[in-house]
Amino acid sequence: MASDAPPARVPRHLAIIMDGNGRWAERRRRPRVIGHRAGARAVNQCIDFCIEHGIGALTLFAFSSENWGRPEEEVGALMKLFLNALASEVEELHRRGVRVRFIGERERFGDAIRARMEHAETLTRGNATLHLSIAASYGGRWDIVNAARGLAADVAAGRIRPEDIDERSLGMRTALADLPPPDLFIRTGGDLRISNFLLWQLAYTELWFTETLWPDVDAATLRQALADYAMRERRFGLTGAQVSTPSSMPPSGTNE
Ligand code: IPE
Ligand code: IPE
Ligand code: MG
């Protein structure tokens, strides 16, 4: 029987802070790196989930600008893990139609990691099933500073005037500008903060937090987040009456 209920709203773009790997390991009296390894397995499940549910874009926070300050041993172990994952997973991602890209200050990684990042991006460039963006050596403040620097260079070269700078031109220079902004943000691990993730892009994103540690995340956790998201009323600064009339909603374009 046909139902009058509108189709369930699925986020076009999901952004996740994958937190809690260290605590997951510590609770098992294991070194933190074991938690990071378990976290890498959860990433695969999450990618499958997005493909199955028709989520077009997934952005994962893998390593923040501030994470460089962790003990050398942990940073080293994470770099090894990145390198191995880039070698072992990319072909499979390509086979599944995933387009991979990296956002962040790439110059801070060693040559081997940078080369594998470039290889992954080039290989998967033509894929469109899922746009996977990995935020690595990424900070939201860095992203905005980087955009501002680009605009300043345009002004200095006489390509634009200072008064041409607006939300659109700055937004176009931030990471992921070609995607719709995240509809849904998830942070695992129980902390209620943004930790310098996509500061510009999250302006009107729906936020969802769970105590579940990242390595324990499974399809059931993600389904719960999606169910919660489907119930939210997104008003974008308007009134409830306005948003129930779709014609008055702001266009859901790219990240400008
Ligand atoms: C997130 O897990 C992964 C990275 C930041 C690299 P954490 O390593 O922050 O785990 P907790 O928060 O200490 O449990
Ligand atoms: C945020 O987690 C970064 C990543 C998950 C990659 P952190 O563990 O670094 O954040 P804080 O330190 O708890 O704010
Ligand atoms: Mg953490």
If you compute it from the alpha carbons, what radius of gyration comes out, rounded to the nearest whole angstrom? 19 Å
Beta content: 5-15%
Query: The CATH topology, please?
Result: Undecaprenyl pyrophosphate synthetase
Give every kind of bound small molecule, once each: 3-methylbut-3-enyl trihydrogen diphosphate, magnesium ion
- Can you identify the CATH class? Alpha Beta
CATH architectural grouping:
3-Layer(aba) Sandwich
What level of helicity do the residues show? Answer: 40-55%
Largest sheet: 6 strands, parallel
* Rounded average pLDDT: 94
Strand order, sheet with most strands:
3-4-2-1-5-6
* Count of runs of 4 or more consecutive helical residues: 8
Alpha carbon gap, first and last residue: 41 Å
Shape: globular
How many domains would you count in the coordinates? Answer: 1
Total beta strands: 6
Structural class: alpha/beta
Which residues form runs of ≥5 with pLDDT under 50?
none
- How do the SSEs run, as a string of H and E? EHHEHEHEHHEEHH
CATH superfamily heading: Decaprenyl diphosphate synthase-like
